[in-house]
Please model this.
Amino acid sequence: MSPTKQPSANPLSLKERIKVPRQHMPEQAPGLRVLNFTEVNLGYSTELARQEALRCLECAKPTCVDFCPVGVKVKAFVQLIVEGDFLGAAAKIREDNVLPAITGRVCPQEDHCEGSCLLHKKVDSLGIGYLERFVADYEQRMKVPPAQSAAPTGKKVAIVGSGPAGLSAAGDLVQRGHEVHVFEALHEIGGVLVYGIPEFRLPKQVIREQIDTMRQMGVVFETDVVVGKTVTIDELFHEEGYNAVFIATGAGLPVFLNIPGEHLNGVYSANEFLTRINLMHAYEFPTYDEPMVDLRGKHVAVVGGGNTALDAIRSARRLGAEKAYVIYRRSETEMPARIEEVKHAKQEGIEFRMLTNPVEFLDDGRGWLKAARCVEMELGEPDASGRRRPIPKAGSEFDVPLDVAVIATGTSANPLIQSTTPGLDTNKRGYIVADAESQKTSRQGVFAGGDIVTGGATVILAMGAGRRAAKSIQEYLTTGNW
Model:
């Protein structure tokens, strides 16, 4: 006998729900926000959140859950919002996601849960990310203590890296009663969340609040520990007594264009540029006098079309850049950046130069950048990524006057841990080889996940890898099977 279906708290019929427009997220006006680093999106009010939640179709088979890399029970938490149980909704999300205030802000939901929402077949998809952010922020305002973890198991797990993969794994494992230590090479916890994403998209205070919650859960964080130098994986096992190690160091080694003039003063990698702004507090000038080029009145360009590129150029605009360009070798259709970020950048006066590629950076005669020599591109047949391959147009060279150029064309694997850990297999690109489901490596007791395995990806995909690793580590610690 099948269980009785629970009546819905939603007062709207299915036809009425489809007619309700998606609720716009309030945001700072463009002319104001380019003058500050305060968060652009301002969050839903209680009324907007409930109105948006009413749009949920309450599908019998919610595909939004299937397409969430961490498996958040979307239908269930949205129904709780409809009922007005916001803390219940937050608790439901936390069953699968230990960083809801972060993913509610930076996860590309349009590629996952919202992209698979059945509403999207006829109208705008449900604002799942906005709703997730709402209940996470509500929970924080209410100062709700974290749920109790399981009884201590006596097992110790080392997490190398405090980015999204490491934090996700740490949260799952500590709740299962294990002693979890997270080692971070930098002086602040959060990895790419804190050094790579600007304040106007992800405030540092939001990250710190999520980290504090994890501390209350029992996770121990240690900063300024460079695993591979300060301590090796072997030492963690044999001298520190850890039973398992999860490597989640990300892929933070910059990739450059390898064109003439890239050595000039004024040419930065996106990693350095954003780290100086985010972690070295350039965004708080003049309170912090960070040693970076003064961008007031300058011409700045970023090369690349992903979210990192837009984070860099929108930061430059806020630091006073008079002209701010995105230079991208494909068309806007092929840009991997989030649609919302592109829209916000255009509103802020960023100029997009599509089908354009730099071939040389020009010297002003004193070792400083004065311009980028570029060529026009046209799109040919699709390449391995599925996007049409850009091809240079003969005789199309032109110069773009610049004071600063930021290279945001990707990252690669830092080889430090791999080179200091015997028996750890890597692929030809230097990434750690790990099973796609279990995250097991070639070294017993060592797991790896996130960008150090896949190459540069998104926060939520890294978190998914962290959850899979936590599940496998749990099995390993309880059964001893490898």
Q: What stands out?
A: The chain has three domains: 14-141, 156-252+413-479, 255-410. The chain has a mean pLDDT of 94.
